[in-house]
Structures are given as structure tokens and as C-alpha cells.
Design a protein that fits this description.
Number of domains: 2
Strand content: 5-15%
Largest sheet: 5 strands, antiparallel
Structural class: alpha+beta
Shape: elongated
Radius of gyration: 31 Å
Number of strands: 10
Order of helices and strands: HHEEEEEEEEHHHHHHEEHHH
Number of helices: 11
Distance between the termini: 118 Å
Helix content: 40-55%
């Protein structure tokens, strides 16, 4: 056998081995997707798509989260543990984002949470003909099934969830019958709500003024008692000083009563404004999209609690708050009390600035309008 024949045999042998290896790799490529590549499900696609839309920072990062539920016509179960749950017939699996909900109905699905991610061990069942998969906005949930309405504001205490739905319905009615622009809807809603709460606002303002007047009379007497008396004698004189002015020792709590009535409405309003998909893509004045911060400039870096944009509304809101509070501060209070009130004012203004800065523009717009209307009430409404 000559040398060329030997070489040809070696080459042909190598080619045969390469073909066998290539055939094995190709076979594995078509076998592996059943177990490996298919692990990326339509649920992962939905979550990735939602995450690409926008990233919130600070306290508003709550809107980046997803929640998972199983719902039937009797109850709603939040899936938040590694314990596996088997879906029954007529049950819905809901993957809830800020605006959208992915709904899946397939009996026998095995679902659980692992490392904050939804795991479906038998996700191949999603390709069955009887599997139902839909994506809807939260306001369209009842068009799929009545029991899905439970998902709306489920994270809130039931009375607050009910109140949030009333706020949402009111906003929709205003947009349907009064004004078409969603920014103007917020203006009209803020005015209507202020008029509705005006009696409570007047009552609260009256209480605040009375407290200021009492403090201006009581503070010198309390200072004198503190210097000259102690023990039971100090207590008796303290009670007598309050009685002389016709107030109880808890008189400073009266203004808080009005706030307690308004706080649930405020919570409901902010939840509705933050989760209504109708604001997405709607512009108003310089605000390009009411559903997201009103960025007037984007940064190449992000700042903790503030994000990566310069937002105008939070600055305007803070200026309005400080100005209105300074104008109407208690002029009857002692100098030391005035200084304390100013310190509290600046601290609260800064706290609200940090809190609201990364939130959707629609929420900051409403709060700024509420402060303007409060200023108008204090200046022009006779009380």
C-alpha cells in the first residue's frame, strides 16, 4: 500500500468521525430545546417586556414589582411561597404588573415561587389547545370573568380598595362627560374633591387657629409652672391653666381629626392615579407622559432615591408647599414656637420632595394642585 492510499484512508476516517460528531451535536440541539430552551416561557416574555418599559426608583420602585395570584369565583390566593400549587378547572393564574395582567387558565398547572420568580414545572401544558392565555389592562379584567375584579387594588385593605375604585370611576366619568384631556381631568377632579371636603377643611383650619391662639396664651403660663412648681402641685396648676382657657389637655389633637377623615381618600386617590392605564401615553402641558415622571432632562447616571432624570413637578410642588405654609403660619404663636414650626415645615417639605420625586407625574400634579387649592381656601374662603 502506497503512502497516498494511507493518507486518503486517514482523511476519510477523520471525515467520518467529524460527520458522526456533527450528527450527534445536531441531534442534541433538536432534543435539548424540549427541556432547556423551552424553559423560557411566554410568562418570561411578558415580564421582560413589562420591565423594558420603564424603571422606577426610590419609593416608586414598588411599580417595578410583579404579583402572582390564583383566582376563582370564591377566593383569591397570592402565590408567594415555594410550596407548589396545582391549578383546578375554572381557576385563573394572574401575573400582575402595574398596568397589565397576564391571565392563564389551564387545569393541572403546577406553580410556585422560587427566588421571587414564578416557576411552572409542567409549562409544556401551556401549548395545549384548551389552555387560555390573555393579556389585558386592569380596567378590562371583568370583560374576561367577573371574579377577576378582585385583583384591582387587592394589595389594599378592602374599604380602601373600594374607595380606590370609586375614585377611578369618578375620573373616567369626568373624562367621558366633562373634559377629554387626562391632565385636565386631574384639575377638575382636584377642584371637585376640594369642594366636597371643604366643610372638613374649614373645620380643621378653625381648630388649627384655635390651637394657635390657646398656645400663645398657655405657653408662658406653662413655662412659669415648670420653673416654680413640680410634682402634684405642678400637675394641678397645669390642669387649672387649661381649665381657665376652656380646653382639655388633648386640645392639640382636634386638628388631626380632620386629617384622619381625609387620609383614606388621599390613599385611595394616589393608588388609583398610580395604577390607571388610561394615563399611559397622555400628555399635559410640558409633561410628555402622565404615567411616568415629567423628566425635562435625562442623566447618564442614576442617583439613589431620585433616578436618572431631572423632574420639574416635584420642585414646583415643594415651592408651592413652602410658600403657602409660610404665608399662613400661626402669627399668634410665641417666637420659639414659630421657629419650631419653620424647622418642621422645611423638614416636611424636603421629605415630601424626596418621596414624590420618582413617582408618576400624574400623582405629583394632583398633590401640587391640592396645595394650590388649599392656599386659595385659606386666603379667600371666609371662616
Amino acid at each position: 500500500m502506497n503512502t497516498s492510499t494511507v493518507k486518503n484512508k486517514k482523511i476519510n476516517s477523520g471525515l467520518t468521525l467529524n460527520k458522526k460528531f456533527l450528527s450527534l451535536v445536531t441531534s442534541l440541539f433538536f432534543i435539548l430545546p424540549l427541556n432547556l430552551f423551552a424553559s423560557h416561557t411566554i410568562i418570561d416574555d411578558f415580564i421582560e417586556q413589562e420591565q423594558k418599559s420603564y424603571t422606577f426608583y426610590g419609593m416608586a420602585s414598588y411599580y417595578n414589582n410583579f404579583s402572582y395570584y390564583i383566582i376563582n369565583n370564591k377566593k383569591i390566593l397570592q402565590i408567594d411561597t415555594p410550596n407548589e400549587v396545582k391549578m383546578q378547572a375554572s381557576e385563573w393564574l394572574a401575573i400582575v404588573s402595574r398596568f397589565d395582567v397576564m391571565l392563564i387558565q389551564k387545569s393541572g398547572l403546577l406553580v410556585k415561587i422560587k427566588n421571587d420568580k414564578l416557576i411552572i414545572d409542567n409549562h409544556d401544558m401551556l401549548s395545549h389547545k384548551d389552555a387560555v392565555v390573555k393579556i389585558v389592562t386592569k380596567d378590562k379584567l371583568t370583560t374576561i370573568a367577573p371574579e377577576l375584579d378582585q385583583l384591582r387594588y387587592y394589595h389594599l385593605w378592602a374599604p380602601l380598595a373600594w374607595l380606590s375604585k370609586i375614585v377611578e370611576s369618578t375620573l373616567v366619568l369626568i373624562q367621558t362627560y366633562l373634559v377629554s384631556n387626562w391632565g385636565m381631568v386631574i384639575v377638575v377632579f382636584a377642584i371637585l374633591l376640594k369642594l366636597l371636603l371643604l366643610p372638613i377643611g374649614i373645620m380643621t383650619t378653625n381648630f388649627q387657629r384655635k390651637v394657635g391662639q390657646v398656645q400663645s396664651s398657655l405657653t408662658p403660663k406653662l413655662a412659669e409652672i415648670k420653673v416654680n412648681y413640680d410634682g402634684e402641685e405642678a400637675h394641678n396648676r397645669l390642669m387649672a391653666a387649661h381649665k381657665e382657657l376652656g380646653v382639655s389637655t388633648f386640645y392639640t389633637l382636634k386638628p388631626i381629626l380632620g386629617s384622619f377623615i381625609q387620609i383614606p381618600i388621599l390613599i385611595a386617590t394616589f393608588n388609583a392615579l398610580g395604577e390607571m392605564s388610561q394615563f399611559d401615553g397622555e400628555s399635559f402641558l410640558w409633561i410628555a407622559n402622565l404615567a411616568y415622571p415629567d423628566a425635562v432632562m435625562h442623566l447618564s447616571f442614576s442617583v439613589l432615591m431620585f433616578g436618572n432624570s431631572i423632574n420639574l413637578l416635584p420642585f414646583l410642588m415643594t415651592i408651592i408647599t413652602i410658600y403657602s405654609t409660610i404665608v399662613f403660619q400661626n402669627k399668634h404663636a410665641p417666637e420659639a414656637e414659630v421657629k419650631r414650626q419653620k424647622r418642621n415645615l422645611y423638614f416636611m417639605a424636603f421629605a415630601f420632595f424626596v418621596l414624590f420625586y420618582p413617582f408618576p407625574a400624574v400623582m405629583v400634579l394632583y398633590w401640587a394642585l391640592a396645595n394650590i387649592l388649599q392656599f386659595i381656601q385659606q386666603k379667600y374662603v371666609e371662616i
